[in-house]
Every structure is written in structure tokens, then in C-alpha cells.
């Protein structure tokens, strides 16, 4: 039983536990890093015998923790890929593109730190990947036992750069959609978190455009553009990442029928001009094959 | 109108510039009409096709509250739409087929955003914005891309900054879908200028956050691109 599983069990027994005062949370954290695991359940038992605290900001915390989960996912993908190969001729990510992917990896790591620091003062325990054993506060977010980005050797991403790029594109486009799907939970705008989540979402969109453009320059057969065209996927088996991206209706209006009197745009451009949200359930289903 | 004098200079210089353009051998799929306009651009005509429609009124009131915010975004989109419309007519030297295709996309996306915002605003929409196209030297790839990057990064910051100011939060969900598209544009133009420069440490800070700017900051930054005088006294701060 790892630390996160223990926390889950406590939450199940006492659903309000993640909303308590920070001194108790700090105690939990210290226990996670310092105490012997076998002793933890007994120690925790004495902390939470009453439910005097109120249930608040559930939806905001759930959203932030979900986004944090995805940022861990993304960071681990890039960190693993960048570490694959030992020199300039065997690198999975070739020298010409490494600076771009190092920047992307750096953004994802910064998002993890930022989100943990946002969630913590709000009275919840920040998400930590399953099978993560280091100190969640001070440890590196790299946690290879938690993920299998090949989905049991179905995606040969560590042997083939183009295969890596296809999957990475689908994940980044999914990230943009996942962020947008969480906005409705953040409209109360507590502590500017709505703005900050939007600021992260546009960074994810930059990543997606970068990967798409790298693939375009490499002559990928789907001829990707930096933006999402209809529901075109890099591979047929990734089509579920693009469901409803061909939408051309915004605010109840068909974009292809709108005009200022000079012209109209076609469905392709109308679909490209807007990214589309994904629910948490959509995203959870998409990433499930890659989690351990 | 500025266009008259510049059109004259374009015609006057056409003969001597023709040869030079052909000799570069860099042009792809540029129609004869575009070619002629491109030649004019090289002659130094900053404004080739003025976006002026009629004599604009002295000031255009953008409204207050959400209307002002949506009109503000419309101004941002009008500038981008005008820039890409012109860029498609008088594309830069060395344009590849791939770049031409994506340049047309960018124009169409901005147009889609523009007409949607106008439709949402209805009778509250501002009249057409007169833009200053002389701010960009369209024939020069580097200058065009630098302007594109500045404007796209600014559009991202505008969308990110405006969200929390909306009273009707449905607009947040709508404009977020447009913001990420602007970020895709920004990253693409940055990549065209220099590979692996999808962002930098000015645009994305150490927390991994893109910029979010107050409407007035964005508006001031757009000043070189706008001729129309707007009354933004009730634009939410």
C-alpha cells in the first residue's frame, strides 16, 4: 500500500478530509515523507475522528487536481522520451528538435509546481501519481512506474520518433480540450485561478501547434496543420481524441453561414477556428490505457 | 485615404521591380495579381490596399460591460483579420506552398472569429475598424512574422485577460476556444521565424503561464495598427 492509496482510503471513510485546515494537511505530508508506512494508518486514525469542517470549493479543487494529474502525465511522457537514447545519433528526439521538447517539458514541470502550490492553500491534498514513492512536495515529478506510454507495446513510441510524435500530438490536443472542459467549474474565479488556468491552456495549445508543425515538416501523411482540422487524427486508432472537433456551431450559430457581406468560411476553417472542450470522463477514458 | 499615393508609387515602380522579383526565383503559386501587388510592396508602399471604407466618425463608442469587452476583442480580431487578408494578397518573398496554405487558414480563422463576435454583439457591434496596414512590410518575411507574432501573442494575452471581467460567464467558455487557436497561430509564426521558439521566457513565465493582460494594456499596444478613434471610457479596467 503506498501513501496515495492510504489517502484515498481516508477520503473514502471521511470525504471531507481534503478540505481541512492546512496544519492537518502538513501533518499528513510529513507523515508521507518521514513516518514508516506501516505506522501511518494508526497515526492518521487519531487525526480525523470528527467531521466539523465544511465541504467547500469541491468543484474547483477537483478541477485543479484533475489538471494536475494530466500535467504529471504529460511531464512523464516528455521526460521519458527525452531520456530515450544516449547520444545525438541514438536519441529518440533528434538534436534539431530537443530544445523545443525541453521547453515543453519545462512548462509541464512548472505547471505541476504551480498547481500543487495553488491546491495546497485551498485545503486539499494535491494529486500524486499512482505508484509514486518519493516525497510529493520535494521529489521530482518523474515517476516511470506510474505510466506505460506504449499501452502494452501497442504504441512503439520509444523506437520510432514519428510514432512518438503522433501520440504526443493527440495528447497535447487532448490537453487543450481537457482544460476547456474544466472552465465551467472555475467561473467563480477564486483567487484568479480561472485566469491562471486559461494561461496554462494557451501554453498547451502552443505545444500542440509545435508538435503538429514538426510532423508537418516531416511529411506526415495526414498533413497536419498547427490547428485541428475537422476531426482528423494522426492515426485512425487515435480518432477518439478528436471526436466533436469538427463542430462548426458556436453559440447556436453555424460559423459557415456567418458573413460581413464580403465572404464566408468553409467548414474546415470553421472547425479549425475553435478548439472544443472535453469532459473529465472523456479524458479519463482516453488516458486510461497509458496508466499503471 | 492613404491608398491613392501608394498605388501610384506601386505603378510607377512596377517596371523596374519586375525583373528583380523574377530573378529571385523564390515565388511559389503567387498569382499574377498578387505578383504585381508584391512588386508594389517592394517599392516601399506600406499600404497597398487600405482597409478604409468610408470616412470614419471621429470616435466610436465601444459600450460598457460585456459589450465593451466583446467589442474590444472584435478590435483585436479586426486587426489580425486585416493583416492576414493583406498578407494573402501580397505575401512575402520565399513563401512556400505549405506557408501559403496556412496563411490562408489564418486569414479565415480571424474572419470566422470576427463575424462571430459581430453576430453575438448584434446592433452593439462597433462599425468596421480602420486599420493601419503600413505598420507591416508584407513583402519581408521577417518583418511580417515579427508583426504576426506580436499580434498573436497579444491576442492570447487579450483573451486570457478578458475572461475574468465578463459578467455573463458563457462568454468565458466561448472565448477560451478562440484563445487557444490564437496560441496555435502564435506558436506557428514563431516556429516559422525560428525553430524551437514556440514560446519564450517573456511570453511564458517561470510558472508556465502565458500572458494575461488588461484590456487597456492590449488596446494601447495595438495603437500602431489602428486608425479609428475609439471611446473606451467604459471598457472594464
Name the shape of chain A in a single word: globular
Determine the oligomeric state from the structure: heterodimer
CATH class of the largest domain in chain A equals Mainly Alpha
Report on the biggest sheet of chain A: 2 strands, antiparallel
Find the structural class of chain A using helix and strand composition: mainly alpha
Please tell me the total number of domains of chain B.
1
Question: How many domains, in number, for the residues of chain A?
Answer: 2
Strand order of the largest sheet of chain A: 1-2
Overview of the molecule:
The complex is a heterodimer of chains A (292) and B (237). Chain A is mainly α and 292 residues long. Chain A has helices at 3-13, 22-34, 40-45, 58-82, 95-119, 161-182, 193-217, 267-272, 280-287, and strands at residues 249-250, 253-254. A two-stranded antiparallel ribbon of chain A has the order 1-2. In chain A, helix 6 runs antiparallel to helix 7. Chain B has 237 residues and is mainly alpha-helical. Chain B has a single domain (58-231), classed as Up-down Bundle (Ferritin), CATH 1.20.1260.10. Chain B has seven helices and two strands; from the N terminus they run ααβαααααβ. A two-stranded parallel sheet of chain B has the order 1-2. The two termini of chain B are 33 Å apart. In chain B, 49% of the residues are buried.
Kindly list the characteristics that best describe this protein.
heterodimer, A: 292 residues, mainly alpha, 2 domains, two-stranded antiparallel ribbon, 48% helix, globular, B: 237 residues, Ferritin, 58% helix, 2% strand, disordered N terminus
Task: Give a concise summary.
The complex is a heterodimer of chains A (292) and B (237). With 292 residues, chain A is mainly α.
What layout of secondary structure does this protein have?
The complex is a heterodimer of chains A (292) and B (237).
Chain A: H1 3-13, H2 22-34, H3 40-45, H4 58-82, H5 95-119, H6 161-182, H7 193-217, E1 249-250, E2 253-254, H8 267-272, H9 280-287
Antiparallel strand pairs in A: 1-2
Helix pairs in contact in A: 4-5, 4-6, 5-7, 6-7
Chain B: H1 3-24, H2 32-42, E1 60-61, H3 65-89, H4 97-121, H5 141-162, H6 170-193, H7 215-222, E2 230-231
Parallel strand pairs in B: 1-2
Helix pairs in contact in B: 1-2, 3-4, 3-5, 5-6, 5-7
